[in-house]
Amino acid sequence: MARQSLRTLAPGLALLALFALLAHTLADVIPGLNALIVAVALGALVANVVGTPDWAAPGIAVGALLLEVGIVLLGASVSLAEVQASGPLVILLVVLTVAAGVVAVELLARRVFGLSDKMASLLAAGSSICGVSAAAAVAGTIDADGDQLTHVVATVLLFDAVTLLLFPLAGDALALSGKQFGVWAGLSMFSTGPVAAAGFAHSPVAGRWATVTKLTRNSLLGVVAVGYAARYASDGGTSNAKLRQVWTEFPKFLVGFLVVAVVANAGLLSSAALASIDTVADWLFTLAFVGLGFDIRLSEMRDTGLTPVLVVLVHLVAVSALTLAVVTTLF
Amino acid sequence: MEDGVPRACRDIEPVEPVASHWVALDRGWQATILAVTLVAVLGLWVV
């Protein structure tokens, strides 16, 4: 079984490696080009022009695992002293942004756009916390229909693709510092992968702050999902089953990120080892972002309902503008 | 023994139980195990 699995994964992994190499080569040759953005673009180009080959699909899917390994390794380059200094402020911003985002999307979706309660809750969770994982976790706790979840996931993926392109451009145009851009992207964008990609597309500092801010936001998934479970408790389903669903969707790599951050900050790793870990994480991100590109399907985005897109668009514009003003003032 | 046919010792792969446990593991835990192993290996070998 093990050998068969490796044989199944090898072609897709080789394709990821080939495109990652190509992305780095192009970025080295063409000034101003970012390897991570090129990696996403190459994956998206192939997926949308010729489609994902069947023989490569299993290996390409491993990109999601490589992304999480890269994020855990990123813990080694995070200075806990620096996080501790800005930590309370970042945590406060995350809590306020998530709370305001959930309430605003709930009200907007129900009162202004007339969406169903469950659809509104899925959109609120997906856009305020951690994209697809949050939507799936909340869908389990409120017993939402598969169809509703599909629409929300498509909407989130659409905005992941758009923000991945626009945020780095906006960061450059506004001449934001690495920390400002990282915290802004971490507060405003949706899924963890695109947030990290946009951050590193700006600068390594922005990449680290984007990831730390986004992981803080992700950690609120449990609180929000349990809140929704309590809110919809009368709609049936045992609370134990709902809590299990929340735990299933909870991003466990957060634990690994904290472990690696503590080990690195305890001074247990030499500077040469830290540099090697950084290089490995860079390559894992490039491989993962090629895979992320393969997930961008323009045809599926066209099928997304217009109303959920409008709700999320209003939310994204409002949150981005407000957090940009706050971040540029405070950092 | 499977369907009444005994398996020869050479057919039994000791990696199979490990592989099936690995596949059943949540992706977040897989990422944590892989990354912590990498950190341990690089931390010990790259000085």
TrEMBL record, chain A:
Residue spans crossing the bilayer: 33-50, 62-81, 87-109, 121-142, 148-169, 181-203, 215-233, 253-274, 280-298, 310-330
Membrane topology: Multi-pass membrane protein
Primary subcellular site in the record, as a coarse category: membrane
Annotated signal peptide: none
Keyword annotations: Cell membrane, Membrane, Transmembrane, Transmembrane helix
Cellular location(s): Cell membrane
GO cellular component: plasma membrane
Keyword Transmembrane (UniProt): yes
Keyword Cell membrane appears in the UniProt entry: yes
UniProt-recorded name of the protein: Conserved hypothetical integral membrane protein
Organism annotation: Halogranum rubrum
From TrEMBL, chain B:
Sorted UniProt keywords: Membrane, Transmembrane, Transmembrane helix
Positions of transmembrane segments: 28-46
Domain of life, source organism: Archaea
Protein name: Uncharacterized protein
Organism of origin: Halogranum rubrum
